[in-house]
Design goal:
The longest helix is centred in the first third of the chain and has 28 residues. The chain has four domains: 75 residues, no CATH class; 117 residues, no CATH class; 196 residues, no CATH class; 193 residues, no CATH class. It is built from 26 helices and 21 strands. The chain has 777 residues and is an alpha+beta fold. The radius of gyration is 30 Å and the shape is globular. Helix content is 39%, strand content 10%. A seven-stranded mixed sheet has the order 3-6-10-9-8-13-16, sandwiched between helices.
Amino acid sequence: MDKSWMTARKFSREYVQGVQSFMKFVDEHIGQEREIKCPCTFCLNSYIRSKEEVLDHLLIRGIDTEYTRWIHHGELFDYQVPRSDSDNGSVNEDDDHTNGVNDLLNDLGNFYENTRRFDKDHNTNESEESEDIPMTFLELLRKAEQELYPGCSKFSTLSFIVHLLHIKVYNKWSNKSFDMMLTLLKKALPHGETLPKSYYDAKKILNDLGLGYTAIHACKYDCALFWKEYENYQECPVCGTSRWKVSNAKRKQIPHKILRYFPLKPRLQRLFMSPKTAADMRWHSDKRINDEKELKHPADARTWKEFDQQHPYFSKDARNIRLALATDGFNPFGTMSNSYSMWPVIIIPYNLPPWKCMKKSYFMMSLLIPGPHQPGKDIDIYLQPLVDELKDLWNEGVQTYDAFSKKNFQMHAALLWTINDFPAYGCVSGWSTKGYMACLVCNKHTCSKGLRSKICYMGHRRYLPRGHKWRKNKIKFDGKEELNMAPKYFSGNDVSQQTMHLKGVKGGKHPSLKKKNKRDKQDLNWTKRSILFELHYWKTILLRHNLDVMHIEKNICDNILGTLLNMDKKTKDTYKARKDLEDMNIRKELHLKKRNDGRYVIPPAAYAMSKKEGQQFCEFVKAQKFSDGYASNIARCVNVFEAKLVGLKSHDCHVLLQRVLPYGIRGCLSKDIYAAILELGDFFRRLCCRKLMVEDVNKLEKDIIEILCKLEMIFPPAFFDVMVHLAMHLPREVMLGGPVQYRWMYPIERYLGTLKGYVRNKARPEGSIAEAYIVNV
């Protein structure tokens, strides 16, 4: 049927005639009395309406031009997959599952057919493997066409199995209960039913659909993987520990740890199977407005642009994929009483447009690192399969069918950077985030000072211009003039040279492998050489590891609230903090006063609220009204009587620091303290915008220097932990990596939160989460 009218101008004769032909097509294939899904530009097949309403919508609003295959209105797929009643527009809870299976089968069919055609065109002797792929697909197609039982019109075998697996995951059924349900259904359904006999047989179908993972055994002490040349080893090649928990021949052998690896290539290929998604994968090149003055996507940032200049072979094809790697530990049981740390490794494709870039549906879990303990610096052991595949994607690539251009191409992929919170930042990069050189950006030039019970990171005056008046001010800062200049930033080549001598260091937590606690001077704060340096291009990237804005903002907010409200165990204004002021011989009005009985009195500070002022502030916060789902947790965290806020989440601190805190403290504190906190909140508000002008980012880089210097004149040195110092580097990272929205942990933590609900077996939670992830892909 001719569909050229879909792109014609609205209200034109051609368009009106096309709409009429569309409605006639619907009558012929669905029937005249049914309600149907409306494909107008507003409804987008999401709402079911009468045919009269659909006709009005199409004439007034126009039809969705990307809806080229009318699957919701009776048009068949290229591969004749039968349509159920739910596909015709009736309200049925099975609708989403059935349509998803049909779409996936159709995309797989196009992919396999074009792959085999490509092989025939380029190979004189077609291999047996290329023949096996279509046979697997044809078996799936047979199950999609097969009735669940004779006379069943609502479900095919394939759609029912996928639907049943979804229910299993959402309701946390055990494998045994699923087998029992299948047995009961096979007895209840009429003779000739086509259900599988067990969960094992049902799960095979997911593997045929391209959804599955590889189980790789790991050493108990994280020394090595039983993979590649060590695949058949019974003992760890590093520490000699047995591979098995139970090695008795009479019982089933159970490995200590199982790494679940989800291959990356097939899922990257799947992005190009759908014409719509394939078009989005080149958005950064075809539809993005390349404005040098604005930052709205990672493609606008310096890291992306310089990477393209250094690797022109990779950048000449816009379909080559830029990736980010994110990882974080979480407790799948959702309770701190049961200590367990599991680490998913997530891959994020950046070719997509801004409104899809960080959507949960495009997150790809690549590794599921088992617990119960965090891998720490030995995470490189578990990253080996992923890095191996990334090297292959860079060097060789993988042949992929592009459904948008309907041609095959050789797809390559590159990892641009990692996104982690600060502890995981140290695990992945290999730089210890503790001690006097905790900041990787400053490297060996980190400005730190030892206090009575901790290390503070002050000295932000060195970032000021050389002749600035604050450089010579001793009294209001640390008692010294600041003569040093801002440190230089270390490139990837510099970091590679620093870690070259750590190349052969082995990992693992076996007691016999423990190293001496003291590091050599040449080690600086390096604990290892990151496995990511095995990627040929890694040292050429400007921004390799991202600082997480969300956790930096939360820690700064906690420091401010704890100190202003003088909260127990949260305030930075302690007895030892006042002793630090005495040691530095600054702010004598805040020094401890000795009483006649020998006890010390802590004089009140200008930055601390009284109990009454704290209660008034808490009442103000509790009285604020927020939209549902925006910051509803804040009111529950307020304790007015004790004047404190407890249990704040990251997003709560995000709202408090930027929107609430500056107004709540007005009138309680002096003007200079209020102004400094107001400027800090405004800094984060401007930094977290979806679009940023380059000149605004340059201004933010200058503003944060002055803001931190103002805070140094107000709060005690103990206030300035490493998280406060890291705010110094955020504007530079925005300039290098693009807006914060695409490089922060908030969407990733929400994604990890959804995984917690899939734990069924407390002994092996990784298996439950891996299974749930496969079913929901």
